[in-house]
Every structure is written in structure tokens, then in C-alpha cells.
Design goal:
The chain is mainly α. The chain has one domain. 91% of the residues lie in helices and 0% in strands. Helix 1 packs antiparallel against helix 2.
Length: 79
């Protein structure tokens, strides 16, 4: 159950990073053309950083779930 949820979260977070990256790219282009403010650019960068952190947290949760599965499987094989 935890592994499935972690996998879904990983997929969602990957899409969030892709969207935040695209948003940052667009905002950066607008900033270079003087159509966006420094605040707009910083906000886009913040959103990208936050999305990357969430994605890394989701990856960590996958690894934790896999370790838990390994631990449970190893205990069952002992008996």
C-alpha cells in the first residue's frame, strides 16, 4: 500500500517539476524581454525549487517503502 501511494506521489511530483520548469523558462524569457518583474522570476524559481524538493521527498519515500518490503520479505523467509 505505501509503495503504491509513494509511486503515485512520485509520478505526480515528476509532472509538477516539469510544469514548474516550463513556467520558469517562460518567466525567464518574459523577464529578459522586460515583460516580467524580478519578483515574477523569483516566484517562478521558488516554485521550481519547491517542486524539485517534493520530487526528491517522493523518491526518498519510494526507497523507504522498498526497504520496508525487503525487511518484511526477509523476515518471512526466516520462518
Amino acid at each position: 500500500e505505501n509503495y503504491r501511494v509513494a509511486g503515485e506521489r512520485l509520478g505526480v511530483s515528476k509532472k509538477a517539476v516539469e510544469q514548474a520548469d516550463e513556467n520558469y523558462r517562460i518567466t525567464e524569457n518574459r523577464f529578459r524581454q522586460r515583460m516580467a518583474t524580478t519578483t515574477d522570476l523569483l516566484d517562478a524559481r521558488f516554485l521550481l525549487t519547491r517542486a524539485r524538493i517534493e520530487h526528491n521527498n517522493a523518491r526518498y519515500d519510494i526507497y523507504l517503502s522498498m526497504a520496508e518490503i525487503d525487511r518484511v520479505v526477509e523476515r518471512r523467509e526466516v520462518y
